[in-house]
Structure formats: C-alpha cells, structure tokens
Design a protein that fits this description.
Elements (H helix, E strand, L loop, with lengths): L1 H50 L11 E6 L10 E8 H4 L18 E7 L4 E5 L4 E2 L6 E2 L5 E10 L2 E9 L9 E2 L1
Length: about 180
C-alpha cells in the first residue's frame, strides 16, 4: 500500500514539474509555425515581384496561389483566431480603420493570431499588401487559399494578397 501511495506521489510530482515546460514548448512550437506561415507568404510575394513584371490588368497579372493551414495537434496551442490584415485592423493595438484613400500603402500587413492562453501576437509580412478595398483575411485549420498578384499601379507596382476559393485542377497551387 505504501509503495502505491509513494508511486502516485512521485508521478504527481513529476507531472507538476514538467507541465510548465510542456506548456512553453507548445507555445514555442505554435509561434514557430505561425512565423513560418508569415515568412512563406512574404517570400512568395518577393519571388513573384522579382521574377515577373507588374501588370495593371487583373486577368493578366502574374500570380501565385497557396494554401495556408493553421497548426493543430497536441504539440501546439489551440489557435482561437488568426487573420492576415493591416496592423490597424487586426493587431493588438487596433487603431482607426484605414480609409479608402490609403489603399494598401498605409497598410502594414501582419499575420495576427490569438491562442487559448496568450494575447494577440503578430508577425509582419513585408513586401505584400492587401488587395485594395479588401477586409482582413480569416485563416482556418482546414486551410485558406490565398492568391498573390504582381499588379502595376499608377504610383508603382505591388504584390497584392486576396483570399480565393480553392483553385480548380490545373491551376498552380502550393501547400503551406
């Protein structure tokens, strides 16, 4: 009887000492995966801008399509919400909404997420902007399809991001 009680006491003590480390590891793994997603979107935009000319017409603009899935599983924190949008719209210190005159130029694009045990965290996405007049893009664990287009504008060119329906067979796709 004493051995059983002692074994239970040791098991509880071991569990109590490892729980904080497991929690930290889950938080770090989630942050790493979310940073990887933001970096991949940023790199895809940079590759698109460097490898193709900007085109004003939407139908002719060079594009890349990718699918973004939020990390899930025991080794990750539960993500309660994740959005790609302007920092003023989705960041932890939300400000006034950008007005139509700002277009994408006044927009610092970020991937923002909130886990079950932390506040809102963000990762900046450089070189990419939301397509004009688009609201923030909600991401899901099932996968969200994104299209990046290298568009020419009167004031220069930009890589624009928008959410799309899943692509049909034969369209380019990259899984993230």
């Amino acid at each position: 009887m004493i051995r059983a009680v002692l074994a239970v006491a040791i098991a509880v003590a071991l569990l109590a000492t490892t729980t904080p480390a497991l929690s930290d590891a889950r938080e770090d793994a989630t942050r790493t995966e979310m940073d990887r997603i933001a970096t991949h979107v940023e790199r895809t935009g940079a590759d698109l801008a460097s490898s193709s000319p900007a085109v004003a017409e939407a139908d002719l603009a060079p594009r890349s399509v990718l699918r973004v899935r939020l990390p899930t599983g025991f080794a990750r924190r539960t993500i309660e919400g994740a959005t790609i949008g302007c920092r003023a719209d989705v960041g932890p210190k939300r400000g006034p909404k950008r007005d139509a005159a700002e277009g994408g130029e006044g927009c610092e694009l970020v991937l923002a997420w909130r886990t079950d045990e932390s506040g809102v965290e963000t990762h900046r996405i450089r070189g990419v902007t939301l397509a004009p007049e688009r609201s923030p893009i909600e991401l899901s664990a099932d996968g969200t399809w994104l299209r990046l287009e290298h568009r020419g504008r009167g004031d220069g060119d930009a890589v624009e991001l928008r959410a799309i329906r899943p692509p049909e067979q034969g369209e380019g796709r990259i899984e993230v």
